[in-house]
Structures are given as C-alpha cells and as structure tokens.
C-alpha cells in the first residue's frame, strides 16, 4: 500500500509511486521510479513537498504523513473569474453503437493528417491552418452527435503512436468538455484547433529527449520546456490561428497556484482555455500508456485531479470536468455488485453514477459467450428487478481485458 512521506524524509532505495503534483511538471517522466541517488532526492525536494512510496518495492520510511499533515498550497491564488456561461444544451442524436464506426473513421483520418502536419513542421515547413480546420471538422461533428463514441475510442491507444494519439485525445476530450459547458460551435472549433496544435513545438525537439525514460537532467527538462516557445513560433510563422490557439499553447503548462511554466501565471491570469488545456493535457497523459510507464485508470486519474483542485487546477473547472466525464468514464473497466466485470459503454447525462455498461465476465470472472449491455439508469428506474451498482473502477488491463477486443 502506498504511503505518503515528506520529501525531507526521502532516502536512497525508496520506490516512488506518485508525486504531489502532475508528473509532467517535473523532470521525472514516469509515474513510478526508484530513488537511486542523492541527486534524485535533491530533484524531488526541488519540485515536490511530499511524495508517495511503496515500502513493499523499496526502502521503508521512518515516519509517514497523515491527513493532519496536509500541506497548504504553496502560494495564495487570486479570486477566479467565472467560467464561460452559455445556455446551449446539446442532445445525443445517435447511439454510441451508431456513432462508433463514423468516429473511428474520423479518428484514423485525424491521426494520419496530424502525422503529416507534424512531420512538415519537423522539416521546417509552415502549418496550413485551413488543413487543421478540415482535420477538426469531422471530429467536432461526431462528438456533437454523441461524445461517448470518441471517448470509447480514446481508450484504444497505441503505445508507439503516443504523440498523435495524445493530440487527438486532447482535442476530442476538449470538444466533449466544451459541449458539456454549452460552448457555441464556433468556440468549440477554436478550442479544438488549439488543443490539436498544443504540442506542435515538440516537433522541434530531439525525439530521443521526448522519449527518454526515467529522470531528465535539469538541462534536459529546461530544453523540453522550450516546446512552448517553439509552438508559439510555429503558430506565428504559419498564420491563420486565432487568439485561443495562442493562449492554449502559451499557458497549457501554467498552474493555478503559479508553480507552472514558462511564466508562473496563477489564477485568472491564466486564460480560461489555457486552464482547460492544462487540465485535459494532464488527464490524457495520466491515462495513457507510454513505452516506459503504465496507464492509470480513468477513475484514479479523476481522483488525483480532484485532489489537485485549487492547487494546480481551478476548482470550478475540475468539478465541471468530473461532471462531464462521470466518475466512471467511458471505456473504464468496472466491477459490479453482482461480481460481474464490465466496460463502461456510455454515460447517462442526467445521472453520471449510472452509465451503460457492457458486461464481459460473469460473477466467476469467466467470459460471457456474448456480451450484454446493461443500462444502469433504466434498471434503477424499473420496479421489476433489483438494480445493480458499480462497486469500483479497475486498473487498465484487469483480467486481461482490452477494450479493443470488444469494439462494436
């Protein structure tokens, strides 16, 4: 079981499982690592006030922190401005089963086109903003019809295709979130274009630096941070991008309490789309497998982001994001009160704790010959049977389940 300790109590030989902040904001590019030297300890102390360790995998600590030892945010934060308020209510007009093949076509086309765009940037060419608009359009229309199709597809990730999958995930989750907030279609398009281009500056960094496992040196971490400046340069050189795209690129690594980069902005000094981008970028990274780290369950990632509210991310934004994704996001592997195992297929917008679930393993955890789709909301409202509940969310890959095997 993970234990929380102050970084002042770190010792060589400990196995660190989690940090007190988004790991993307530190030189530690994995979600778990071995403390191998005094240098590792010094770096952890520089970036974190406390960390979590697993005493079963490494050295134990002499003392552990309790809930009473919870540290205060490192800096006071200015009062927030309100999130955008719109009265647009989007309705699902297709089922997830109907939308999935359309969404898959849009997703694959987006990855192919994005690969071409990024490689052109790597070669020193300019971005064609009109092409980016064409990439975004099919994804936008699909998510407006039913966001769960793309959120399901986002679980079917290729570890070796992280850069492009991550950008497309960022884009589609942002559209789904903007849809939830009721943003007008034009605003959704602006947000989507900015999110798709969020990491374009990384194309000007060496690939071996971006894919390096383990701890980066301080010089390497500073080099990685340069992707923000490179991204802004790429957008400026290309033309055709609006203010929102620049705001997203410029501020997606800024943090609510002023501990981000490159300008240590805090609170409402961070543009609202920059706040949205930072939150979604972190969520997508936490739930993605890399060549050197495992994916975190969506439920656990949401819990971590909730713990970081009013520290690294605006509390109101976090609460709305959790409302949008649901406590059991689409694509999550879950255990039912019956002992059955299922995959969350789609959300019930009115009651997020009762989504539609595809049951794939029986109570003995044996595969069903044919899977059954259960609407927990409809079952709850029925008087004929006792409603099943989701007991807990499981880690990706539990029971050898791969959502790709159950693609409808």
Unreliable stretches (pLDDT < 50, length at least 5) are: 73-79
Q: Count of helices?
A: 14
Question: Which strand order do you get reading across the main beta sheet?
Answer: 8-7-6-5-9
CATH class category label of the largest domain: Mainly Alpha
Percentage of helical residues?
Answer: 40-55%
Q: What CATH architecture of the largest domain would you give? A: Orthogonal Bundle
Query: How far is the first residue's CA from the last residue's CA?
Result: 37 Å
What's the total number of strands? Answer: 9
Shape: globular
The averaged pLDDT comes out at: 88
- Main sheet attributes: strand count, strand direction, barrel closure: 5 strands, antiparallel
Percent of residues in beta strands:
5-15%
The whole-angstrom Rg is: 21 Å
CATH topology of the largest domain: Hypothetical protein af1432
Give the SSE string.
EEEHEHHHHHHHHHHHHEEEEHE
SSE blueprint:
Blueprint: E1 3-6, E2 15-19, E3 33-34, H1 38-47, E4 50-53, H2 96-122, H3 129-145, H4 147-153, H5 162-181, H6 185-196, H7 207-210, H8 218-225, H9 227-238, H10 243-251, H11 272-286, H12 298-307, H13 315-325, E5 333-336, E6 341-346, E7 356-361, E8 367-375, H14 376-381, E9 390-394
Antiparallel strand pairs: 1-4, 2-3, 2-4, 5-6, 5-9, 6-7, 7-8
Helix pairs in contact: 2-3, 2-4, 3-4, 3-5, 3-6, 5-6, 5-11, 5-13, 6-10, 9-10, 10-11, 11-12
